[in-house]
UniProtKB/TrEMBL annotation:
This is DUF1203 domain-containing protein. InterPro entries: DUF1203.
Amino acid sequence: MSFVIAGLDPAPFRALYGLPDAALAARRAVRVVADAKPGFPCRITLEDAAPGETLLLVNYTHLPVDGPYRASHALYVREGAEKQARFVDEVPEQLASRLISLRAFDRHDRMTDAEVAEGFALEPLIRRMFADPAVAFLHAHNARQGCFAARIDRG
């Protein structure tokens, strides 16, 4: 079964690129400079920023549903990122190198399954979850920090 792991669309973040720190703060965002790699995972490019790169730390609603599973959390995006990552039948290094909480949701946006695994073991877990026809999509979260990492859809 084929699957796609996609980065976030950069469109909602473009209005933040280049804003002064005070304007970012008014939008509950903070500019940070990566000082280590890994450690600053961009959710648009699905790559860790290199030391010295500028990112924005923002609160992002990754499950914008009108129900009990509505969810948001802090995440990083590279300032100026434009290329939305897309991995087909492949787990990007950013996920493969971390402990991941994988959550399955049905077409009603209700969680039907969840598992924690080392990122290098995600591919068979993704395929197992998608073997259930009730599963509409998956969300990957960094298990330690709890932040949203990526959405996974059927390919």
